[in-house]
Design brief:
The complex is a heterodimer of chains A (552) and B (289). Chain A has 552 residues and is mostly helical. Chain A contains 25 helices and 6 strands. Chain A is globular. By secondary structure, chain B is an all-alpha fold. Chain B has one domain. The chains are: A mainly alpha (552), B mainly alpha (289).
Amino acid sequence: MYHIKLKAGILLLAIIIFSAVLRIVWLGNFPASLYTDEADQGYNAYSILLTGRDEHGVFLPVSMRSFGDWKPPLPTYLMIPFIYFSDLNSVAIRMPSALSGVGTIVLTYLLVVELFSRQKYKTKIALLSAFFLSISPWHILQSRSAMLVVISLFFLEAGVLFFLWYRKKASMLIFSAIFFSLSIYAYYGMRVITPLVILLMYLRERKNIVLLSKEVIVGFLAGIIILIPLFAGIVKNKDVLLGRAQTVSVFYDQGVKLLQWEYIAQDGVKQVSPTITRLFHNNVTMYVQNIIRRYLSHFDGDYLFFTGDKAEPFEIPNMGILYIPDGIFILAGIILLIKRGYKGIDLLLGFLLISFIPAAFTFMTPSTNRTFNAVVPLVIFSSGCAVYLSSLMNKSIIPGLAISLVYTVLFAYFMQQYFLVLPKKHSDWWNWGWKQVVNYVSGVDSRYNNVIVADVNGMPYIYFLFYTKYNPALYQKQAVRPYVPDRFGFEHVEGFGKFWFPKNFEWKYVKNDLQKDTLYVVPADQAPGNDGYIKEIDNPAGKPLFKIFSSL
Amino acid sequence: MKKIFFLVLILLNTVFLRIYKIGLVPPLKSQADLDLRYLSSILGILSVFLIYFYVKKIFQENVRMGLLGAWVFSLLPWTIEQNRIISQPTYALFILIIALLISLVNKNKIIKYGVFFVFALILYFVYPQFWLFRHFAHLPGIKDVADNVFILVSPDLLFFKNITFWWGGVRDYGILLLGFLPFLLVGFYRVVVSQKKEILLPFFLLLMISALSPFFPESREYYLTLPFITVFISVGIWNIFRNKYFLSNVLSVFLFLFLIYDFAGFLHFYQIHYPQFIIGNLHNIHVPY
């Protein structure tokens, strides 16, 4: 849509290469193990590649039933070409996220240039935004794992960018509609976010949009056509619409209800009129307050800069999701950009505020995963401040050097935490150990009639499918799964072939009544001491994770 | 005349909010404490009156802004909570507002800045619990201070959970009403953009002092920032309500209605639930209450 100047182009290319290195190198080893959701998506992609059906035997699903959490399908489908060319492995299934991560960096550059097209520092802010995004701990963590949100951000950002390009070429709106629709297939939160972003874009651009023009109609139809399979899926099964959102929503959590009952009981003690009680302790008030509180929790500095997400596996040890100076830069950036009349700031602020909405409706807040889109406006604000700070110093290089030095130190600290501390000291966050278990078991299982694996620490069945590359067609016939959700909404697999995964497995009882010719995989904490196991699997720090027993 | 009428109305409301059932809500530890509670209330009411002059002066004798400031200050959950118990921060805040006023009206630099030394001296007598007078040697580390700053400016503390007086305070409400949030944001932005140093500097200084408290989160020193937070909110209300756009006006009315509901909810909580939470905690409160 425009020409990038040579110097800016070279710098952008350098940033792209740098960000690609950060996201792609050692992709299979860092994170050190596959998280359950990653393995699940990978195996389902493998299954669709070989049989056209997912693990449940559904032909080309529009929502992956998975563990009963109904994952959005697009990330899984995007894994298929990589699995086709490089077989089922952790690199292949993480590659779509990693490439989308690099893609969002390019899109962010283009977005800033487009948004601030009339501003003096647009290129500098765009380049710095791309660079800040490339070193963002939040962005790197998500890009290096197959966790949906980077892919959804890529499509959402592309939708926004092409929408903005509509002013220059009307046909861009068709591409925008396609990207927006695809984002809805990439992550559940997008079913709230994407319509709101489209509404925001429309309100902002309504003067430039001719509603009954050919491009608008074609774009609208293209979006609808892409979404038809999803609508059909929803009609067939309502779980396709909200998926796991049902079991993580604030309405599922009992905390609000308990508080409400406590207040109502206290009103009763004081003989308060029932009308007053209903006025202040009704469902709407209680839940709206709770939702607003959860929404605002994402602006807590302690969460952003020091502790980060405490939900596994999204935690980076001993640090937040933003660098500490970002706190000042973001705030000052917003104020500076508004004050200096940057027209695109409204879109960025709107985008930021919309990003936190889906997470506010869940009881697991603050959440880095569900609010991931916020990373883009935040780095742009930060960059805006840094560029202006440098420009105020009358060509002195000292502020730029000082900022660079601080960020270099902080980035080095992040690298240490992510690449050294996380795999060694917190390998359990990523369900480390199952690959080693499966590797050992698959070497000896021919000698056994049954392999019994305690159903703990994720969903072990998926690791056995993934690492053994179990024939999907065979699995679809053999799988024993009662489709009874546990209290978190997850459906467990009881077994397939010779592998069995009993829930509530207690080694202290089982060991007294061993089955013949059976291999047992037991969590190490259930079998303390040296009591006859044939193999021990330790974590990278040397702590026992699993003990394997034989009844031969 | 009309303006005086509004001021009197605000003060009458303030008196009611601070005196009504003061011996019962919150429950007394000892009947002898009641007199000192009245002292807090009287100073609290006078503070509202002084805030009127302070905000008016800050905004070039803008009487409406003064009224707005007094009204906002009188409705803050934290001022109502502190003005109805024996509260050294209330005494300190009263003295601080006087010092701020003296500093504002005097052009003589010695008086303008000297008044804060006098304030610090008086503070020693009226607020001996202030951590600076007790544990100056035990400062938290830099990381803890930064943590504390984030907690003090967190939405949770501001709007949902005031943890600065765990056993005796209204823990289930923030220091501000949630309905003030949009006004606070707009007002803060306006104050920063207009570079009102006389508001921003003392606010950030007191924020840092509160964050340095060795007793954090029991850090009622933060109460002293309320005049400045009041200014942020007042500026926000002023800007939002003066906007002539139709949508903005509709939003303003909605926000105002929400604010009224929010405040009514606070009063209900304060009169009905707060005493029931406190009654079991009285033995944990080791300061005059």
